[in-house]
Amino acid sequence: MLVPVSRMKKSEIVWLANHYCQHKHTYLDHYNCYLKENPCKERIGFFDTENSSLNAEFGIMLCYCIKDGKTNKIHERSITKAELVKCLDKEVVASCVADLKKFDRIVTYFGKYYDFPFVRTRAVVHDIPFMNYGELIHDDIYFIIKNKFKMTRNRLENTCRLLVGSTEKTHIDPTRWIKAMQGDSKAIAWILDHCRRDVRDLQRLYDKVITFQRKTDTSI
User: I need a surface site. Which of 120, 125, 161, 175 has the fewest CB within 10 A?
Assistant: First the structure.
């Protein structure tokens, strides 16, 4: 992982440059070692998006949530009716990318094949600089469920209900997504709340199953 110098104080950068990991390299050169040897310093975010379509050339981002694993604060943003007319999801995507950069590790559920490719595509469409390879570590809990457990359905709702004992998830209502695309504020608010529930479920599931698989440092 690259050192996130853009969100660090000068004193923190200097400290990394003057302290060494077990491999005799500075923490600036081996930042992953710093995170492994100082796990309490790693900022973990639980990430989910809600979009108008499964594919980014026909759809836009309606909202996103990133739950801070330490503070429980949810960084979030949803689209507005004015933005739909003026710039589609440009402002939501820009806000999402900026919030993602606040974290060292992002946890998703099937985000490897959906959320991150969708956000990356929309960012490139809008000429918004997106994180390069190595800038953000990614854990996808879906693959722990798929590879380490045996259930009829591997959806987040089903896995939380069985393994955690409960789920906050609300069921998708297509009408609300249609109204959201028209700028209906109540529909957008409902979808944002749906997204919040997903990231809360995701963290509870992560805490339950993360020890069943070796923690990796895979980039987004």
Answer: 175
